[in-house]
Specification:
Length: about 260
């Protein structure tokens, strides 16, 4: 009984501290009118409601893009307070993100924070993306899972590192985690420069930033992997990525440079 009471008090104290931090954090006050959270989803009815609730503690405007789900993803997101954009059929993560960005832009937002809808991105990590970011200075801020990759499945860890190294060399920019979808980005520079429709969108965003000379910065985030089948097709999505990779012009005309050079 004492243990249960102690755990309850600890949880309550931690929650109250987090709420006080959110309410008094001046950075959040400045960002709220400018930044929307965009969450692409495909059949994430089990996670999207609680995720929207928690994310809303940090940024009030949450846009969930339902990428042709066959479950109750859209209704769960709407019930949690998100604005829902529904695509008539599953078109891919890139297409879903683009639809969310366009909705955010039309609503007057100039920045977006992209998150996955499967619960693998912890809302508690959100403040880290804004800690050193200036509203009037375009910058791409990406979550870095590879600072402590042990919770990642070994194959996923290997592929991520391999793709990150190849992309770094191709673009001439030092990258730490090229495939993480947890990202803060300014909308205007990217809206007209991205065309891919599937999972290669993560790499295309980085390539666009390198081409436009937008600084790229990484922040450490929690590594969370839940049971369930990945939506990445190991064959078709790999083929798409290689097709995209070899279609881009190499930018490495000099030794690898740091993101802030």
């Amino acid at each position: 009984m004492r243990l249960c009471f102690a755990l309850a008090v600890t949880a309550t104290t931690q929650y109250a501290a987090r709420q006080l931090h959110i309410q008094t954090h001046p950075l959040q006050d400045r960002w709220r009118p400018l930044c929307a959270v965009v969450i692409p989803c495909l059949n994430e009815s089990g996670t999207i409601g609680p995720l929207v609730h928690e994310v809303s503690n940090y940024l009030a405007n949450v846009i969930v893009v339902d990428d042709g789900s066959s479950d109750s993803t859209a209704s769960e997101a709407a019930a949690a307070g998100a604005r829902v954009v529904q695509l008539p059929r599953s078109s891919g993560k890139g297409a879903a993100l683009l639809a969310g960005w366009q909705a955010a832009s039309k609503a007057g937002f100039t920045w977006v924070l992209n998150m996955d809808g499967d619960g693998q991105h912890a809302p508690a990590d959100i403040p880290g993306f804004f800690a050193q970011t200036q509203i009037d200075r375009p910058e791409l801020v990406i979550g870095n899972r590879l600072h402590n990759p042990r919770p990642m499945p070994p194959l996923r860890r290997f592929v991520n590192r391999w793709m990150t190294r190849r992309l770094s060399r191709r673009l001439g920019v030092r990258l730490e985690d090229s495939q993480c979808g947890f990202r803060l980005m300014p909308l205007p520079p990217f809206l007209a420069n991205l065309v891919t429709q599937r999972f290669e969108i993560e790499s295309e965003i980085i390539a666009a930033a390198a081409r436009l000379k937008i600084p790229i910065r990484f922040v450490p985030i929690q590594v969370i992997y839940r049971s369930g089948r990945s939506k990445i097709n190991p064959f078709t999505d790999t083929v798409r990525w290689f097709r995209w990779f070899f279609s881009i012009r190499p930018l490495r005309s000099r030794p690898l440079r740091d993101q802030h050079d």
